[in-house]
Amino acid sequence: MRRAVSTVGIVTTETPEGPRGMTLTAFMSLSMDPPTVAFAVNETASLHGLLGPGDRVCLNLLSSGDDKVARAFAGEVAPEQRITIGDWDRSLGAPFLKSAAASVVADITAIARHGSHSLYVADVVQVELGPDETALLYGRGRYWNSAQELAGV
Question: Which of 1, 54, 118, 151 has the most crowded CB, counting CB atoms within 10 A?
Fold first, then answer.
C-alpha cells in the first residue's frame, strides 16, 4: 500500500479531556443520499477507544500547506497537545482546521470492526470549505504538496 497515493486528513472530536484527533488516509465519501462519510482507525490508535455511536467528528481534508499539522497529528506531538498546532475552530462540536481544503462535520451512526481496525460511518452535518483547495497527498512514505511533485514533473 506504500505505492497508493492518498489525500491526507485529520479526524477530530471533543472528549471530556479536551479535543483529540489523528492523521489518517483511510477515509471516503460513502453516500450522497444521505450525505455520509466513512473512515478507519487502527485499534492501537489513542483515538480508537474514544469514538462511539452519536459522537461528532470532523474529517479535515488537509490542504497542500498543512504537512506540519499532519505530522503533529500522526504522532510527533502528544495527543493532548496536537490541537495547538494550526488554527482550529471548535464552534461546530468537533474541531475543524481553518486552513484545511475542506472540513466535514459528521455524527457517527455505525461502527464495524475488521481485523486491526474499526470502520466508522458518519452522517454529514455540515461542510466548511477552506481557502486552499489543493489537497495534501501521502505516498511512498512521505507527504507531497502536489500531484506534479509526486510525479516528478
Answer: 118
- Reading phi first (left if > 0) and then psi (alpha if -120 to 50, else beta), residue 87 is in beta
Alpha-carbon distance 26 to 7, whole Å? 9
For position 23, what pLDDT does the model report?
Answer: 97
Match 455540515 to its residue by C-alpha cell. 126
Number of domains in the chain: 1
User: CA–CA separation, 103 vs 66, rounded Å?
Assistant: 13
The strand pairing partners of 153, in sequence order, are none
CB count in 10 Å sphere of residue 115:
7
CATH number at residue 138: 2.30.110.10
Look at the pTM and tell me if it is higher than 0.85.
yes
Residue closest to 67 by CA, chosen among 128, 136, 146: 136
DSSP alpha helix (H) spans, the chain: 67-71, 147-151
Determine how β-strand 56-61 pairs with β-strand 102-114.
antiparallel
